[in-house]
């Protein structure tokens, strides 16, 4: 069994084999208690592009799950004109030039520290390093000032605790879960609101104000960015390095920087940090020969769609239907894509500059929604992996 499978099985010992089993039953299948499950990238894209029929609001949708903690207007629970209008206003927020500058600025110090530790021959836990850095970036996005490494680590863990409340079967959060999530998100919203009110072009919240967002919209966006943009990025980084090492490609990508984007995209395809996407059906439709009724729930098994293309292979091009499916498609395509890529590229470049790297120790994480390592220790130089817990 390869490590990626081990990560999925440790995170979801029951749901993962079940989900992979559903993939064998066909491109689109109805599963009692879950909904209509889509395992094929072409069909997934067809559904994602039709935002009128397959929506993120309504029964069984992600909106129903997140509205009680994030409020009613946070992109991921909106549709139609209101969604389009908010997205239009946010388009300029994460343009690549801005996200690259932001990441380079806030990660300069942690990356210099990371490079220095590797240069001195220290063993570095990439899981912890990636969490602190993802916490740092998202802290900057929501307007947190003067955070320490410990504060960013804590920020990350708080987000993780909220996300881990959700499983494949979750349709609603219980009142106590909503209370616990709000206890984390409300103070972050206050920080975001303060930064919004201070205004200015140098902060993300200040820019939201300049883009015409209301204070409540900015507060909601901060919560949504925190929930969607921290763990996804932090988990991808150690998995990317492990995949490159396990497939003997780390030195090759380190030598040829032009391969980095392909390596990141291929690692995203295999890991799918967001393994499923949910939609609620609002009008009758037929997809892949299956009739779907209003009120049903559609679960796009992004992981199955992407794994159908085979194991990790840097040299196999992605067919058009797969193109960045791990970031979604259509009206809800990940708005944080440029921010995620900027951060991943920067951290990966720093790590690859210390190549050759040896993974010395690793273990899979339990009780998480997004499969990942509990720790992944690496050091610069050639050597052998020690005990694998
Ligand atoms: C590796 C990193 C990431 C992955 C794999 C990822 C994946 C995704 C996917 C698959 C969707 C679409 C979900 C759907 O259609 O149901 C999405 C939407 C979204 N993402 Fe990301 N994401 C990542 C990083 C980020 C970051 C860094 C941010 C922001 C700071 C972010 C913010 C959002 C938001 C706000 C949405 C909702 C957009 C909408 O509904 O219009 N994501 N992401």
What does this 3D model show about the protein?
- It is a single chain.
- With 389 residues, this protein is of the alpha+beta class.
- The protein has one domain: Cytochrome P450 (Cytochrome p450), CATH 1.10.630.10.
- The protein has 16 helices and ten strands.
- The protein has a five-stranded mixed β-sheet with strand order 1-2-8-5-3. Strands 4-10-9 form a three-stranded antiparallel β-sheet.
- α6 (96-119) packs antiparallel against α7, α7 (126-142) packs across α8 and α7 runs antiparallel to α12 (231-246).
- The protein is globular, with a radius of gyration of 20 Å.
- The two termini are 14 Å apart.
- Protoporphyrin IX containing FE binds next to α11, α12 and α16.
């Amino acid at each position: 069994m390869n490590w990626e499978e081990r990560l999925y099985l440790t995170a979801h010992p029951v749901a993962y084999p079940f989900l992979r089993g559903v993939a064998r039953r066909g491109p689109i299948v109805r599963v009692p208690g879950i909904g209509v499950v889509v395992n094929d990238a072409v069909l997934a894209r067809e559904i994602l592009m039709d935002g009128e029929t397959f929506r993120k609001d309504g029964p069984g949708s992600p909106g129903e799950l997140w509205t009680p903690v994030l409020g009613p207007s946070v992109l991921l629970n909106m549709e139609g004109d209101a969604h389009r209008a908010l997205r239009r206003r946010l388009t300029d927020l994460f343009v690549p030039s801005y996200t690259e500058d932001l990441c380079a600025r806030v990660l300069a110090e942690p990356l210099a520290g990371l490079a220095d530790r590797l240069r001195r021959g220290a063993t570095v836990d990439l899981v912890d390093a990636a969490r602190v850095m993802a916490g740092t970036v998202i802290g900057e996005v929501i307007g947190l000032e003067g955070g320490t490494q410990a504060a960013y680590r804590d920020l990350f863990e708080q987000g993780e605790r909220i996300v881990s409340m959700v499983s494949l079967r979750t349709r609603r959060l219980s009142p106590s879960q909503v209370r616990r999530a709000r206890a984390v998100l409300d103070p972050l919203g206050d920080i975001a609101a303060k930064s919004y009110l201070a205004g200015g072009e140098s902060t993300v919240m200040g820019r939201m104000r300049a883009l015409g967002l209301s204070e409540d919209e900015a507060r909601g966006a901060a919560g949504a960015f925190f929930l969607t943009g921290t763990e996804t990025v932090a988990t991808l980084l150690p998995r990317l390095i492990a995949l490159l090492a396990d497939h003997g490609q780390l030195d090759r990508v380190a030598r040829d920087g032009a391969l980095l984007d392909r390596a990141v995209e291929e690692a995203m395809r295999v890991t799918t940090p967001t393994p499923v996407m949910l939609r609620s059906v609002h009008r009758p439709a037929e997809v892949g020969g299956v009739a779907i009724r209003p009120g049903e729930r559609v679960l796009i098994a992004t992981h199955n769609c992407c794994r159908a293309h085979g194991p990790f292979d840097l040299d196999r091009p992605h067919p058009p239907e797969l193109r960045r499916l791990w970031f979604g498609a259509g009206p809800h395509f990940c708005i944080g894509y440029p921010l995620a890529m900027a951060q991943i590229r920067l951290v990966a470049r720093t790590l690859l500059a210390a190549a050759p790297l040896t993974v010395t120790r690793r273990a899979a994480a339990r009780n998480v929604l997004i499969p990942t390592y509990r720790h992944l220790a690496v050091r610069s130089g050639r050597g052998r992996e020690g005990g694998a817990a």
